[in-house]
């Protein structure tokens, strides 16, 4: 997906909010100077044809450079991984005791997508977990997903944020139990980008011990042109499913022609663009098959 009108202002707002989160005492001059650099970058780039993830990557490169930190969100990622792990056993029990464990696991994985420091909503993970209901899915293509699983030999899950990856692990465990012959592959970012999960996070929560974990480009989404060959091979293998987590991954695949496998979007609506695309409201949970 190329940039939409709603995205331009959001890019500058992300710089402002990122600095307030990461360095609350930073001067307004630094914020404006960084926003100016983004203006200069956008003015030189054909943004009418530029993929969103590439533009988003530049935004967080500018923030990282200004702060002098390769991974400025590292402490937040560790905090939210641990917060999610604290609820792991309780949430796993909920899934195992549910009438429809797969549906429950999907709903919880969607709730996990609330952990996103680049989004426009208030993070309230604990409240979401305590009060969630599978009925909260605004769009629910679970029956189509089950049909796809019956016919597929593999599923590639495109991971999103740290912390959220813990709930994705519960989904992986559920899929392995219900579909023992299904090959499951999970992708993380190959380097730091916002609070997205990396191989370090996958190892920390022992995801690498139960499933094949591969690396996608270090961008807030998927850009195949810069992906490594292993990722491309799994992405393009036929007779499978792609389950993409979060808004950045969704934006990457939304306008992409994928004819060799079924694609499902699992995310929480976090901005006006997603409201428009899904005819939903901010906070709604979406589980939709790509047409």
Total count of domains: 2
Q: CATH homologous superfamily of the largest domain, by name?
A: Uncharacterised protein PF01937, DUF89, domain 3
Strand portion, in percent? 5-15%
- The helix count comes to 13
Low-confidence stretches: none
What does the largest sheet look like?
Answer: 7 strands, mixed
Count the strands? 7
Q: According to CATH, what is the topology of the largest domain?
A: Rossmann fold
In one word, what is the shape? globular
Q: Roughly what percent helix?
A: 40-55%
Helix-strand category? alpha/beta
**What is the ordering of alpha helices and beta strands?**
HHHHHHHEHEHEHEHEHEHE
Which CATH-level-2 architecture of the largest domain?
3-Layer(aba) Sandwich
Give the CA-CA distance, first to last residue. 15 Å
Describe the structure.
By secondary structure, the chain is α/β, with parallel strands linked by helices. The protein folds into two domains: 5-67; 74-289, 3-Layer(aba) Sandwich (Rossmann fold), CATH 3.40.50.10880. The protein has 13 helices and seven strands. The chain has helices at 5-22, 28-44, 52-67, 74-86, 88-97, 101-112, 125-131, 142-151, 164-178, 199-204, 229-236, 246-254, 272-278, and strands spanning 137-140, 154-158, 183-189, 212-216, 240-245, 261-268, 285-289. Helix 10 links the parallel strand 3 (183-189) and strand 4 (212-216). It starts with a helix and ends with a strand. The model has no long low-confidence stretch (mean pLDDT 90).
């Amino acid at each position: 997906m190329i940039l939409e009108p709603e995205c331009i202002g959001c890019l500058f707002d992300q710089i402002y909010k990122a600095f307030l989160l990461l360095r609350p005492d930073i001067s307004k001059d630094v914020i404006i100077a960084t926003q100016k650099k983004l203006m200069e970058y956008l003015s030189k780039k054909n943004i009418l044809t530029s993929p969103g993830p590439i533009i988003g990557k530049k935004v967080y490169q500018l923030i990282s450079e200004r702060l002098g930190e390769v991974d400025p969100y590292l402490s937040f990622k560790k905090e939210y991984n641990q917060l999610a792990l604290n609820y792991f056993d309780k949430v796993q029990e909920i899934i195992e005791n549910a009438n429809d464990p797969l549906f429950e696991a999907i709903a919880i994985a969607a709730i996990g997508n609330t952990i996103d420091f680049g989004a426009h909503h208030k993070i309230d993970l604990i409240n979401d977990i305590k009060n969630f209901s599978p009925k909260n899915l605004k769009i629910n293509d679970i029956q189509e997903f089950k049909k796809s699983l019956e016919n597929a030999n593999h599923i590639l899950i495109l991971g999103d944020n740290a912390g959220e990856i813990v709930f994705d692990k519960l989904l992986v465990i559920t899929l392995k139990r219900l579909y023992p012959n299904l090959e499951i592959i999970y992708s993380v970012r190959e380097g730091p980008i916002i609070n997205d999960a990396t191989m370090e996070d996958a190892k920390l929560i022992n995801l690498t011990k139960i499933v094949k974990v591969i690396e996608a480009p270090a961008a807030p989404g998927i850009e195949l042109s810069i992906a490594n060959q292993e990722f491309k091979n799994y992405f393009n293998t036929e007779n499978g499913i792609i389950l993409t987590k979060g808004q950045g991954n969704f934006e990457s695949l939304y306008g992409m022609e994928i004819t060799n496998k079924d694609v499902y979007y699992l995310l929480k609506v976090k901005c006006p663009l997603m409201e428009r695309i899904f005819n939903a409201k901010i906070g709604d949970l979406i589980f939709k098959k790509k047409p």
